[in-house]
Amino acid sequence: MIKSMETNMQLIVLLLGILCTGLTAGLCFTWSNAVTPGIGQLDDLTFLKSFQAMNQAILNQSFFVVFFSPALLLFLNAFLHRSANRTTFVAFLAAAVLFALGVGLITIFKNVPLNDILENSVLESLSVKELRKLRKQFEGPWNAWHMGRTISSFVSFVLLLIGLVYNG
């Protein structure tokens, strides 16, 4: 009975981790593949206002659960599979570490500070030159750091699938 409960817990944590990591990877991919290139074609003021609006809209409960829960779920998953075969455990642990560093820390220490700079700017009061400067300060670095999140979340997702396959 205890073994059955542990197995069920392993499966639930693994499936939730795969689901949330996959959704995060999909969100990051879509943002990198369609959203930022699309709004990148806009003039400076419209680009910056659009990014402000998207940053405000994305901050909701669903986003926080999907985007940040893998940081906990993936470490818990690795811990619960510590007795699994080596390939499974290493894949699960690598997925957890990569997600925490490549998504969690990049978000907290790179993308969010850039978002805060943008959020604290009163765009309508800026000159054309100041808008251009703000966009340059924001767009390139934000996209580069976001690409790190996209790759990290995708590789974490793949590692979870590898661990699942090798776990039988």
Secondary-structure element series: HHHHH
Question: Total helix count?
Answer: 5
Q: Please, what is the average pLDDT?
A: 96
Radius of gyration: 19 Å
Question: Hey, roughly how much beta strand do the residues contain?
Answer: under 5%
Distance between the termini: 21 Å
Q: How helix-rich are the residues, as a percent range? A: over 70%
Tally of DSSP β-strands: 0
Q: Low-confidence parts lasting 5 or more residues at pLDDT below 50?
A: none
User: What is the global morphology?
Assistant: elongated
Structural class: mainly alpha
What's the story with the biggest beta sheet? Answer: none
How does this structure look, described?
With about 170 residues, the chain is mainly α. The chain contains five helices and no strands. Helix 1 packs across helix 3, helix 2 crosses helix 5 and helix 4 packs antiparallel against helix 5. The two termini are about 20 Å apart. The mean pLDDT is about 95.
